[in-house]
Write a structure and sequence with these properties.
This protein is mainly α and 464 residues long. 80% of the residues lie in helices and 0% in strands. The protein has one domain.
Length: 464
């Protein structure tokens, strides 16, 4: 049946989405809170240590988000199985997703460690380059458990159980802050490790998250019907390949966005520690607000996937539009907040006046791209609920690698061979202008793609 935008229908769908999204939101905020704690606590040691964390976290974030995207295939697969009532298939899908996680995690750890070779070519002080490389070497021990945790996370969310994610993430944040306090500052008789203390803390917490999720699934009654650990199962390569075909484009989509942000962090390293640190703080806070529309998006995968599994594309379209509207509505509020309180936000991260001033300036651009960032993540997640992942990948590659990064390089670096480059490099400001425009392109193209896809699926069923 078609769904009208009556107040009761919108309220019902918004309520259902919120019930799924709010525990994910709290969990995501707690997870991002770990990165916030790393930057904020290291920012009160020295500028060199903060720069090391900033650069190391740039590589870590690129790899981590890409792994997350690849593993998100299980969300769509299980949501469709739930919608179709095929509960007997879910345990098999989860077991194969865990095998997939081992391979993805190993490959990601290799790529993360190889990426540290870039630090030798970025005009960095030798001490900062060495600390950033060690940060990545240590923290990469968490990539295999992270991939496995995300497989179980997706399974749990797609059977409508998102609260475990919230509880585990909150506990992880508290443990991370405690270990940071001990190792970053050298408390309780431990050596003062600075940036490396953050890496150790994060690696330990990721392993604890996986153990906690396995125990929760084993104990909680909600998982008994689809419990995945009833028996041993060897890899089933056709199933894993199917999930890779669905997940790799999602991973590339995530990579296209986050790698541009990471590349910007690396490219502006030539402008000094103050610029690098201010950029990382502004990006860190923007990532924090981004967790809200991202959480709506994860809930939308479940809502859209389950509706399609039931054979109801009209409901899937309605869920997509309501979720998109909720995401953009929040973005309006976050944009105003960042613009008004940008100086206070900067001061909360660092006590360095020069870093504070630069950060407050960059936060204005973060406020500008709130709307487009929210729209593009909500639209792309809804499209994934349709098991369509290649077109968002192409759009993201065009928007970020075809628009955002090239334009940012022209404005930020002002190369002599580009006719329309500014007379003087705009430094971080130029790169952030490129990011704003790239996100806008992604938002427009993805929203149009979602509207066309959802309408076509709904009409196809209506005409039968």
């Amino acid at each position: 049946m078609p769904y009208s935008f009556s107040r009761s229908n919108v309220h019902r769908e918004a309520s259902s989405l919120w019930q799924l999204a709010w525990p994910v939101l709290v969990g995501q905020l707690a997870t991002v809170g770990m990165a916030v704690a790393d930057v904020a606590m290291t920012g009160h040691t020295s500028a060199d240590e903060l720069a090391a964390v900033s650069l190391g976290a740039s590589v870590w974030s690129i790899i981590l988000v890409t792994v997350n995207g690849i593993m998100m295939a299980i969300n769509t697969v299980v949501a469709h199985e739930v919608g179709a009532g095929a509960f007997d298939k879910i345990a098999h899908s989860v077991r194969q997703a865990l095998w997939k996680a081992v391979g993805v995690g190993l490959f990601a750890a290799l790529m993360a460690n190889l990426a540290t070779l870039l630090f030798d070519h970025l005009y960095l002080a030798p001490a900062v380059s060495e600390r950033a490389s060690m940060f990545v070497h240590i923290i990469s021990i968490g990539l295999i458990p992270f991939a496995a945790y995300r497989a179980l996370y997706g399974y749990s969310a797609s059977i409508n159980h998102t609260k475990p994610v919230m509880v585990i993430a909150i506990i992880g944040l508290l443990v991370n802050v405690a270990i940071n306090w001990v190792l970053v500052f050298g408390n309780l008789g431990m050596p003062k490790m600075g940036a490396l203390g953050c890496a150790v803390a994060t690696g330990v917490v990721v392993w604890l998250d996986l153990i906690a999720m396995v125990l929760w699934i084993r104990i909680a009654p909600a998982y008994r019907q689809t419990y995945p650990f009833t028996r041993w199962e060897w890899p089933h390569w056709p199933e894993i390949w199917s999930m890779l075909k669905l997940g790799v484009p999602i991973g590339v989509t995530y990579f296209a966005e986050v790698s541009v942000f990471g590349a910007v962090s690396l490219l502006i390293a030539r402008f000094g520690v103050v610029t690098v640190s201010a950029h990382q703080i502004a990006l860190n806070f923007a990532s924090l607000t981004f967790m809200v529309p991202l959480s709506f998006g994860i809930g939308m995968i479940t809502r859209v996937g389950q509706a399609l599994g039931e054979g109801n594309p009209q409901q899937a379209r309605f869920a997509s539009l309501v979720g998109l509207s909720m995401s953009v509505g929040f973005a309006v509020l976050s944009a105003v907040f960042i613009a008004v309180f940008r100086h206070q936000i900067a001061a909360a991260y660092t006590s360095d006046p020069a870093v504070q001033a630069m950060c407050a300036h960059l936060l204005l651009f973060a406020a500008l791209f709130q709307l487009s960032d929210a729209a593009q993540v909500a639209a792309s997640c809804a499209i994934r609920g349709y098991k369509v992942t290649r077109s968002p990948m192409v759009i993201q590659l065009i928007a970020f690698w075809g628009v955002a990064l090239p334009l940012g390089c022209v404005l930020g670096l002002a190369p002599d061979w580009v006719p329309f480059a500014p007379a003087e490099p705009l430094s971080a400001t130029g790169f952030w202008i490129g990011l704003v425009l790239g996100l806008t392109v992604a938002a427009v193209l993805l929203t149009v793609s979602l509207l066309r896809l959802s309408k076509a699926r709904a009409l196809a069923v209506a005409e039968q």
